[in-house]
Amino acid sequence: MIADVIAAVRERAPLVHCLSAAVSLNFVADAVLAAGARPMMTETLEEAPVMVQAADALLVNLGTLSTDGAAGIPATAARARELGTPWVLDPTAVGLAPVRTPLARHLLTHRPAVIRGNASEILNLAGAGTGGRGADTVHVPEQAAHSAHLLALATHAVVAVSGARDLITDGERSVAVTAGHPLLTRVTGTGCTLGALTAACAAVADPFEAAHAATAWLCVAAEDAAGAAAGPGSFKVALLDALAAVDPHAVEERALA
Amino acid sequence: MIADVIAAVRERAPLVHCLSAAVSLNFVADAVLAAGARPMMTETLEEAPVMVQAADALLVNLGTLSTDGAAGIPATAARARELGTPWVLDPTAVGLAPVRTPLARHLLTHRPAVIRGNASEILNLAGAGTGGRGADTVHVPEQAAHSAHLLALATHAVVAVSGARDLITDGERSVAVTAGHPLLTRVTGTGCTLGALTAACAAVADPFEAAHAATAWLCVAAEDAAGAAAGPGSFKVALLDALAAVDPHAVEERALA
Amino acid sequence: MIADVIAAVRERAPLVHCLSAAVSLNFVADAVLAAGARPMMTETLEEAPVMVQAADALLVNLGTLSTDGAAGIPATAARARELGTPWVLDPTAVGLAPVRTPLARHLLTHRPAVIRGNASEILNLAGAGTGGRGADTVHVPEQAAHSAHLLALATHAVVAVSGARDLITDGERSVAVTAGHPLLTRVTGTGCTLGALTAACAAVADPFEAAHAATAWLCVAAEDAAGAAAGPGSFKVALLDALAAVDPHAVEERALA
Asked: Into how many domains does chain B fold?
């Protein structure tokens, strides 16, 4: 299943529209390309809702939310919903931030296929949190498991909680991914990248399988990259190489091990 | 000729004002520095038309066009034209996008020295296209050769069409560059980078020679980088190293081979 | 002293709010993470002054100043001042630029703990300069030593002037750092990164020690990175690895040698 999703992304090269944090825009685009999909990043109200028509999936990430992004995101998500294009909500740093916190709640009405965040973000979005610190979590996924379950039931979205042990649930089924590496937390944009990979996979598979495959893909690639790295800089470079190189069946075996 | 242009960029270190896509701003700036030139990236209406006065060349790239960029670009290109500063138009993703498509046509009135794009973008700008997919082309340069020729005659600009076989024409002379590597399409920002290198070369040479030298420089550096790379991540790093290291005479010989 | 500051950053992992140039946002965030601190990059007027409440230090860098940044920066710096949160002003490209030049002067009223720039920027801010070229300096730190001294006395800030020989003064004490490598000038964002490291250090030490430790940290890491690099691309990757790996005591010994 995981292997089929990865192979399908590489074969079909879906166009993934990414409305994502300025801080990691470049890395997210490179990761989408390394995975075999194709990125598109325009975020303005004037262009993004039109350009999403060409996309096979959409990522909405609220990190470093610009004025352009805040204006363009709601209309683009609404258009994706109308078109039946699957979209992923990554509610980066909800909680303290006064614009993105209500925006994230509003976006739930446009029915994301997947909601992806760290434990603090998922707790906040579910109304049970008390804030992370910036984009960092102060909780582990297990603490957000109940909230993730309730959020999935309430929104009909798959909810993916990233951390040392990633949790994915649609309110009925749940899976965990234990692969990964601590260096993922020492470089910018790996959460955004997981959101973009999830969108790429959602273009070719159902949302639960997509979230599972994307998480496994990134986590196994991170293990390979860490083996080739001398620190966070070379890890980031090697992560792109590994996203491109990793064998789909190896991802499936290692993610389930 | 190619060797002389590259050597002149490294010797004179022209200041290249880049109004370029947010997604690849950092890579473009690093590539300009690696090539031996110097980048400047401010795009607002309040500052860009003033700062372009210090520049030796200007790049206008319409990828991920922000509200700041849409406001600042026309006045900055107009100012460059008044100053006689050579400027390069990179009409990224024209076609579907509702703001940048008419903007690109309007900018032609400010007389770019070089228009650089992929085949779909050149076809669209020439009025003959039916749209790429985001920033990707759905055509090869040969299909855009006639449109490139007509566009060059109509605008008095050099037109450079990138692809597996790059074509460059001023409406009278034409050259092709066959060097390059498929990994150029697996990382973000190589088109933007080619635009910036073209601007750097246009600061020290006539537009036709500049487009030819910049294309050869990037394509030969890409071949060297691919030889040192394990995937798209390490390719991108090695591409910067190769832009700095490659011998100008080797570029000339290998580009013409 | 230097060693203690570096060790404290790694131990306490301060949250550093960075309002920084779009061109190097990603590298700055990665450098902050590599150093052991944590970055936060939101710049809008709506969110940045609220989010700075969670931060342990603030960097305000005026490079590629966006409309969002120009709106959000004054209120965020004012809020940091009210909270007693140390903040660093990096007046990138002041001089020619018509918005950031008066903005930088205005921001001095919000009492930055450290002002960090190249020689041309410090000369301009002190009212003695005639402009750099974009973000580049046309002066060496020694030429700005007197202006730096006067600026420190007038603003009660530590003033750090970067260059081949970095100068740091609070108007009474002065130190120089001779470590470093010319490749620091061949990649984008090393000045912004020095500002962010200075902010990280100012979260755990007094401003003079912070500026000294951050300068030494970056310069010694650059020497290690240059030894591992084949050009500017691999230097940049190795610089992140070295920021993470370098021993605090080695930084202190080598910076003072």
From this structure: 1
